[in-house]
Amino acid sequence: MIHLYDSFWSKLSEIEIDPYGIEKLKKFTEDKLINPISGDFPRWHDAYKNLPEIESIEHCEISDAIECTAKNLDNSILSQVNECYKQLIPWRKGPFDMFSTYIDSEWQSFMKWQRIEKHLPDMRYKTILDVGSGNGFYMFKMLKHNPKLVMGIDPGILQIIQFWSIEKYINSGFAVLPIIMNDFPEEITTFDMVFSMGVLYHRKSPIQHLKQLHNTLKTSGELILETLVVDGNESTCLIPTDRYAQMRNVWFLPSVSMLEIMLQRTGFTNIKCVDVSTTTITEQRTTEWMKFHSLAQFLNKDKTQTIEGYPPPTRATLLATKK
Questions:
Q1: Which of 109, 121, 305, 315 has a 20 to 30 Å separation from 196 between CA atoms?
Q2: What's this model's pTM, rounded to 2 decimal places?
Q3: How confident is the model at residue 239 (pLDDT cuts 50, 70, 90)?
Q4: Distances in whole angstroms, Cα of residue 219 to Cα of each of 191, 216, 223
């Protein structure tokens, strides 16, 4: 497994990143993958290893779904692809369309990307960090913008193996590392852009998270922050008493105005909110590829509140620049 990162480490060493920081990333990655704690890891890893070699890939399309196609694949190969990807259920982010296997993920993640893509800074030749990248769907979306390097971090081993299973055919040269933001080396402070989408509300200390994001950026580097928010003024935030939309690990939902102050206080400038959207059951739902309860079961009957009585999930995307 560790060898999957060999070319990425080489690529990382070619850009302006502290070598000691790279060694820390290697150590965290090796420790997590040598001793995976999930009992499902052998099954997931076997599914990845059993994906067939396909040398005649016709094209990889970065459209709504991340898509790979190839001509003249026999039914046994197509069946093998389908079965391997099914072993990696549940798929949260997507969709992916891999050689006629359509992975209909819980999230129609392209809808979020469509809302924010037109507002994003120029990514050409940039070094990019995606915090909480999951299976890399948004990283693959960045491919057509021609970045120099994209690195994701996510603690979920299943999501990382899902990324490997797509990267096997996309061959982007990107990587998702199995680490959390608290373990990210302080020596690495030179990314051009950092994405943090769907992470802040899971953090007990949102200010600490913003400071960590700030630290990873070079001066004048750009942050893309997406998180749950509530209506209100600069003094408004919601701290759920227990669950929010059945999620236990939701701690802090600020208003957009409060979030702008938090960004300003943690060293960002040029702060701009580019999108505020309430999540719908079209965007997040149960599918054959994610069979558990989803948003429809987490809202009241008329979809005006969560089942706990809170405002329904609304997400804001803000851009900011490191001073």
A1: 305
A2: 0.96
A3: very high
A4: 9, 10, 11
